[in-house]
Amino acid sequence: MYLTEMQISLHSEKNISLEFILFKQFLLSTTDGYIFTGATQSTDGDITGNKGGQDVWVVKVNFNGNIEWLKCYGGTYNEVAYAIHAAIKNGYFISGITTSLDGDVTDHHNSENNEADEWVIRIDTSGNLLWENALGGANYDIAYDAEATSDGGCIVSGVSSSLSGDIRFNKGGEDALLIKLDSAGMYNGVKTWEDLKMM
Question: How many domains are there within the chain?
Answer without folding.
Answer: 1
